[in-house]
């Protein structure tokens, strides 16, 4: 029944196209081709938001590509480590007093002045965080902690390393520990060990995915080549020397992981913009090219305006998220022109690109990132930016961009579906997603994270490694949720508690119709290359 | 191309992370104080012109560098193409002063057999109660290195303009004395207006350049 209704909608839309505007026949023909599909909107490549030509991104499965290294956990393994945990904790207690004094004297220089960093790791405040992340070297040296200082936690990190080694001595691998409402997830990415602790409803898989992002953030700063080299040269090397000044990048990345659905979905959101204006911006970037330029990316805050890439080169979502994180975390790019080495780990973990990063104007949120293979390319790329700006102004596109920035999102009221509070829609083939403003109910940081946690839960059910689902409907005290995944898209919806399941099912069809109608504005349908 | 300047000098800011290089530079180029919270990533590029004599305009290209160790590979490549360097330390942080000699040695060795014109900057002079380095010992270090010393504050806009002017003037004087000159393949000093009048070959080279891009 829903399929028939969907077909009817598409058909009538086709008719209205014919009536309204004959000059749109070519795209109308394309639309008709889509609507002839047996299950319109469901087949990959024909769903709302699908680009008409090649995708801009590596086509990534939402989840598996990032966690391909992981294996499913078994209760057996977590049971085994219970004894080891008790034994190791006793040793830890003995070491703690002695080591903390030594560490604090010797490592004063490396102390960070960040507030969260100065938390007392023996306090209840520190213990009551919903999540913790720790990074240490395989030699047990502390590298990063989300809260507190690394030196204050060196003995605890030693325990983590010991737990891992202890289990591995028995030809086994520690994946996670579940106890007393907490889960502790371990990830070895030689030469690093990452540990996530959570007392949320986050699954082991989700925590592992977050640790993967932290790992790739570190690789992005150093390259895997350099990371391996420093530890081969000296196993007890203090990596904080090389990572100094980057703690805020990892802190911000973890905040994004808690709040931005794009990282969960391996997708990015576009600035809503009339496609005629977007085409002008894209072609202006395309024209302002240089020999060694690989990617030209225009961002508006945390939204993508457009991305132009060198033919046959594709950018992975994770690499783009790392670029977003770099720009969003650093106020230093706002004036002047930045030039920095950056590794895009999914593209090539072994070497650096160099990125020219600058805002179109100091007061604007429009940030241009030009990625080159040549470390001496600064002035060429500076010239590319100038040519891009000149072209934008000549074609009166700059004004359109500024106006679009005034409405960087849209309200759910535009969609007009009763009881629907929020949704996240991802087009698989384009790697882009769309989502309206959060309603007032979820605007606070905690409520936003709670909603995101609910979506994360649905996501992990849909993408379960052994028992994946096609759709799931879940009721809580405060909202009802519906999520579904097809070969073409993923959709997550949040309804008021008054919503019913049948309402949710019918809402999907109405929402897909609306997204189809708006796709020109919400997605990049015609990506360009140079 | 902008031809309203006689010469272009490339100048680099050097010193430990958090001494305030970025605040100093932004005060000079934008005239505003910004309490920069985030560390510089890689290098940042700014430009500003300065009149050092009636009829003599110098365009400064200014590189703000990240002080962290992981960026050393990229920042060192900009030493070679700079004619002047500001060696910046934080008056309230003794260690940053102790590291000035290392910065001076590292850069000077990197650009041999050529030389850079330096000025020593004691920054954050507004924080006099937290001062850890006396003017005397800073002036002694500057004398040892054979360079000028200026104390600055980006927050109070104290001596900022003067520091850059002094360095620019020193470079200009050395140029007039023939101790510094333009070189092929070197961007530290470039001629501007005079190129069109006196060096047609260079003009041709510039046209070639624009064709490449």
From TrEMBL, chain A:
GO terms for cellular component: Mon1-Ccz1 complex. Plays an important role in membrane trafficking through the secretory apparatus. Residues 81-98 have a biased composition (Acidic residues). Residues 419-519 form the FUZ/MON1/HPS1 third Longin domain. The gene is mon1a. Belongs to the MON1/SAND family. It comes from Danio rerio (Zebrafish). It comes from the Eukaryota. Residues 99-120 have a biased composition (Basic and acidic residues). GO terms for biological process: protein targeting to vacuole; vesicle-mediated transport. Residues 23-123 are annotated as: Disordered. Residues 131-253 form the FUZ/MON1/HPS1 first Longin domain. This is Vacuolar fusion protein MON1 homolog. InterPro entries: FUZ/MON1/HPS1_longin_1, FUZ/MON1/HPS1_longin_2, FUZ/MON1/HPS1_longin_3, Mon1.
Automatic annotation (TrEMBL), chain B:
Pfam families: Ras. It is found in: Autolysosome membrane; Cell membrane; Cytoplasmic vesicle membrane. One of its GO terms (biological process) is vesicle-mediated transport. One of its GO terms (cellular component) is plasma membrane. GO terms for molecular function: GTP binding; GTPase activity. The keyword GTP-binding applies. The keyword Membrane applies. Keywords: Autophagy, Cell membrane, Cytoplasmic vesicle, GTP-binding, Lipoprotein, Membrane, Methylation, Nucleotide-binding, Prenylation. It is a lipid-anchor. NCBIfam families: small_GTP (TIGR00231). Belongs to the small GTPase superfamily. Rab family. This is RAB42, member RAS oncogene family a. It comes from Danio rerio. The lineage of its organism: Eukaryota, Metazoa, Chordata, Craniata, Vertebrata. The gene is rab42a.
């Amino acid at each position: 029944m829903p399929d028939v209704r969907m077909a009817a909608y598409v058909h009538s839309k086709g008719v209205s196209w014919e009536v309204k505007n004959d000059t749109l026949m070519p795209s109308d023909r394309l639309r008709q081709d889509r609507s002839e599909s047996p299950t319109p909107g469901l087949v990959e490549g024909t769903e709302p938001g699908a680009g008409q030509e090649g995708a801009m991104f590596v086509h990534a499965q939402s989840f598996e590509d990032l966690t391909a290294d992981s294996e499913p956990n078994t209760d057996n393994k977590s049971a085994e480590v219970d004894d080891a945990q008790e034994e190791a904790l006793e040793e830890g207690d003995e070491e703690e007093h002695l080591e903390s004094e030594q560490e604090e004297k010797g490592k004063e220089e490396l102390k960070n002045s960040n507030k969260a960093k100065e938390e007392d790791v023996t306090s209840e405040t520190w213990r009551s965080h919903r999540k913790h992340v720790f990074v240490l070297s395989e030699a047990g040296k502390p590298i990063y902690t989300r809260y507190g200082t690394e030196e204050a936690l060196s003995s605890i990190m030693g325990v983590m390393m010991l737990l891992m080694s202890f289990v591995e001595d028995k030809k086994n691998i520690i994946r996670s520990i579940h106890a007393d409402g907490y889960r502790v997830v371990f990830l070895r990415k030689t030469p690093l060990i990452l540990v996530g602790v959570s007392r949320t409803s986050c699954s082991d898989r989700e925590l592992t995915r977050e640790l993967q992002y932290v790992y790739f953030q570190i690789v992005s700063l150093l390259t895997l080549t350099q990371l391996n080299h420093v530890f081969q040269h000296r196993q007890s090397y203090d990596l904080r020397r090389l990572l100094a000044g980057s703690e805020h990048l990892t802190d911000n990345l973890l905040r994004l992981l808690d709040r931005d659905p794009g990282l969960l979905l391996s997708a990015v959101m576009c600035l809503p913009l009339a496609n005629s204006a977007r085409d002008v911006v894209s072609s202006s970037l395309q024209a302002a090219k240089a020999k060694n330029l690989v990617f030209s990316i225009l961002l508006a805050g945390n939204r993508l305006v457009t991305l132009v890439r060198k033919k046959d080169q594709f950018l992975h979502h994770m690499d783009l998220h790392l670029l977003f994180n770099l720009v969003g975390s650093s106020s230093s790019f706002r004036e002047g022109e930045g030039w920095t080495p950056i590794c895009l780990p999914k593209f090539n973990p072994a070497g650096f690109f160099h990125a020219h990063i600058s805002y179109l104007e100091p007061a604007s949120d429009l940030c241009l990132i030009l990625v080159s293979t040549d470390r001496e390319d600064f002035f060429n790329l500076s010239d590319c930016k100038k040519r891009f700006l000149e072209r934008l102004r000549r074609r009166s596109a700059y004004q359109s961009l500024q106006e679009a920035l005034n409405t960087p999102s849209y309200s759910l009221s535009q969609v007009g579906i009763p009881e629907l509070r929020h949704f996240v829609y991802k087009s698989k083939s384009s790697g882009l997603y769309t989502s309206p403003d959060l309603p007032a109910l979820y605007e606070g940081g905690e409520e936003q994270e709670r909603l995101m946690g609910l979506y994360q839960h649905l996501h992990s059910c849909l993408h379960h490694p052994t028992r994946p689902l096609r759709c799931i409907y879940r009721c809580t005290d405060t909202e009802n949720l519906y999520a579904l995944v097809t070969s073409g898209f993923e959709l997550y919806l949040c309804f008021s508690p008054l919503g019913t399941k049948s309402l949710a099912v019918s809402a999907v069809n109405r929402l897909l119709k609306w997204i189809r109608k708006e796709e020109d504005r919400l997605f990049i349908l015609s990506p360009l290359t140079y | 191309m902008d031809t309203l300047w006689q010469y272009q000098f490339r100048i680099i800011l050097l010193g430990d992370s958090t001494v305030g290089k970025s605040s100093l530079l932004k005060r000079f180029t934008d005239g505003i104080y910004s309490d920069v919270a985030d560390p510089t990533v890689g290098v940042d590029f700014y430009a500003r012109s300065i009149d050092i004599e009636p009829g003599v305009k110098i365009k400064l290209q200014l590189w703000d560098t990240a002080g962290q160790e992981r960026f050393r590979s990229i920042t060192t490549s900009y030493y070679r193409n700079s004619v002047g360097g500001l060696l910046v330390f934080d008056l309230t942080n003794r260690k940053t002063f102790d590291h000035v000699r290392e910065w001076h040695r590292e850069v000077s060795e990197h650009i041999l057999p050529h030389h850079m014109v330096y000025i020593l900057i004691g920054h954050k002079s507004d924080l006099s109660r937290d001062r850890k380095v006396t003017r005397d010992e800073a002036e002694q270090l500057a004398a040892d290195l054979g360079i000028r010393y200026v104390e600055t504050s980006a927050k109070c806009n104290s001596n900022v303009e003067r520091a850059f002017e002094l360095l620019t003037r020193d470079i200009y004087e050395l140029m007039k004395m023939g101790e510094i000159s333009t070189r092929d393949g070197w961007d530290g000093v470039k001629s501007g207006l005079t190129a069109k009048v006196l060096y047609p070959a260079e003009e041709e080279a510039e046209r070639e350049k624009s064709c490449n891009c």
